[in-house]
Amino acid sequence: MKLLSFGIPCYNSYAYMGKCIESLLPGGKDVEIIIVDDGSMDQTADIADAYARKYPDIVKVIHKENGGHGSAVNAGLEAATGLYYKVVDSDDWVDADAYRQVLSTLRKLVDAGTPVDMLLTNYVYEKPSTDQHRVMHYRLLFPQEEVIGWDGMKRNIKGFEILMHSVTYRTEMLKKCGLKLPEHTFYVDNLFVYIPLPYVKTIYYLNVDFYRYYIGREGQSVNEQTMIRRIDQQLKVNYLMIDAYNLWEIEPKHLREYMLSYLEMITVVSSAIGYVSKTDENIKKVKKLWRYIKAKDTKTYRHLRYGVLGGSMNLPGRLGRYISVKGYKLSQRLVGFN
What we know:
nine-stranded mixed beta sheet, 338 residues
């Protein structure tokens, strides 16, 4: 059995997918690289097939009708035979030295009979246009190189959320939780991380800068104007997260607090995008979202509404929205993600 399966969702990715694939090939026969051609209309399929012919023991290709990022992640997971599964977007890549440490760590854990449900590693925002590299780590949240449960979490700090870039999940656990991402929807990476969390019983944090997240490509889903155009998809993901669990039934407490923090962060992003757009239609959608949360669960609403981040998005009137937008812009500059 393979140690680690990589799913690479590809849609019209021919111009940059090679760098991503080449960064994964050094894993050799310990890994399988599943390239999912999501109905591309360029040379993506040809490039994928060429890699499969050249590396038949490592690379497999799935050609499917276009269903969006979530559909491609689903297809990769369904085909995965490795003990672990990680998604690497086709315009991103992994660091060679960190990659070797990741494989060594996973093998050590498996050989010791302690295969964890979630391996955490750092990711790096790579913004070539400004020569900016911002490492996002978890040293303040989790002890390093130690198998723990959620009770072993050091603290929960808002803004240090686990993202798809930083997580490698045990494949069997992912399939057990019934993860199925919606089709034709962006921002489903948040569901990929969030939905399995109550099924995660063991965690291991390896403090290496593994995933390199490219920022700055025109039309990228995290580009601000793109997010404004796709606000309905952001909101769809937000609603699905709200409906996924009664968070007050989640145990242990550390996990419940973390999931509440994650939901707050996503709701704040939805709110910020609506306010940044400065359109009455989108502002109404944001207000509708908060009303929905309040009607569904007043306890969750109070927690989100009066939290540090949620409170900043609910200051009254136009002045309040102006302050909220300024805070959002400041966070962009501090993190450099957009």
